[in-house]
Design brief:
CATH superfamily of the largest domain: Nucleotide-binding domain of ferredoxin-NADP reductase (FNR) module
Strand content: 25-35%
Oligomer: single chain
Number of helices: 9
Number of strands: 16
Distance between the termini: 39 Å
Mean pLDDT: 90
Helix content: 25-40%
CATH topology of the largest domain: Rossmann fold
Largest sheet: 7 strands, antiparallel
């Protein structure tokens, strides 16, 4: 059993859990994830490790209440426990001194990009971070990202915080100004990561994205998380989750991400929510 020692609401529908998991905290690295199960009847869901404290033996998980399981997860409180927590899984981010690294986080993607930006900074890189959300209320981890960045840009779709626009706009301006960028790391909604790749591709700027497709076991056995990378099938759980953004088939990924939307709607109906089955 893995006890929740801290719970915090970062923004509407976005929760932070600090969970006691000593063995995982001892081994995990930036970029890796866990797969959790709430109880014996629960499904297995992947969540990226947003932070870790090796001395305290804890890991930090940040999630958005979107589907049936994440909504159930959000009802847990401090002192409650998760039944299963498997990890660390996936390949850790390759960290070295590249030069100038731009870390882009959109929405809930700011959470997994945070430990990566921190590691790049600790390795001696100049870290320029760009974080964005639909509005100021949905923006998360601003102070944490500022602490590990040389420069922090904030964007919101409606202009309620930072500049009005999308995360690709400050990135495009850096490129247009001729600033040397040695690496871009982007994590967030698939359409956002695709947009980042479209901006950097013409200039040959190395760009990585962290993919979170539908996943079941996290060990490469089920094949549910397969993604098309450069015309070849890869498993996000064991070959990733980070891939060359310029090789990712984002269109195919978005189709796969929508495969179970109808089931999620039915699950919401069954738990007493507003019926959306015919919408």
């Amino acid at each position: 059993m893995y006890t929740i020692v801290k719970k915090e609401e970062l923004s509407p529908g976005v929760k932070l859990f600090v969970v006691k998991a000593e063995l995982i905290a001892r081994k995990c690295q930036p970029g890796q994830f866990v797969i959790l199960r709430i109880d014996e009847n629960g499904e297995r869901i992947p969540l990226t490790i947003a932070d870790f404290d090796r001395d305290a033996g804890t890991i930090t998980l940040i999630f958005q209440e979107v589907g049936n399981t994440t909504r159930q997860l959000g009802t847990l409180n401090e002192g409650d426990a998760l039944l299963d927590l498997a990890g660390p899984l996936g390949k850790a981010t390759h960290i070295e001194k590249f030069g100038t690294v731009v870390c882009v986080g959109g929405g809930i993607g700011v959470a997994p990009v945070y430990p990566i930006a921190r590691a790049y900074k600790q390795a001696g890189n100049k870290v320029v971070s760009i974080i964005g959300a639909r509005n100021a209320d949905l923006l998360i981890m601003e102070k944490e990202m500022a602490a590990v960045s040389d420069i922090l840009h904030i964007t919101t779709d409606d202009g309620s915080k930072g500049r009005k626009g999308f995360v690709i706009h400050p990135l495009q301006e850096m490129i247009d100004a001729g600033e040397k960028i040695d690496l871009v790391m982007a994590i967030g909604p698939v359409i956002m990561m695709r947009s980042v790749a479209d901006v950097t591709r013409p200039h040959g700027i190395p760009t990585l994205v962290s993919l979170n497709p539908i996943m079941v076991d996290g060990t490469g056995m089920c094949g549910g998380c397969r993604v098309n990378i450069g015309g070849k099938n890869k498993f996000a759980c064991v070959d990733g989750p980070e891939f060359d953004a310029h090789q990712v088939d984002f269109n195919g990924l978005m189709v796969r991400q929508r495969m179970y939307q109808d089931y999620e709607k039915m699950a919401r109906c069954s738990e007493g929510g507003n019926c959306q089955c015919n919408k």
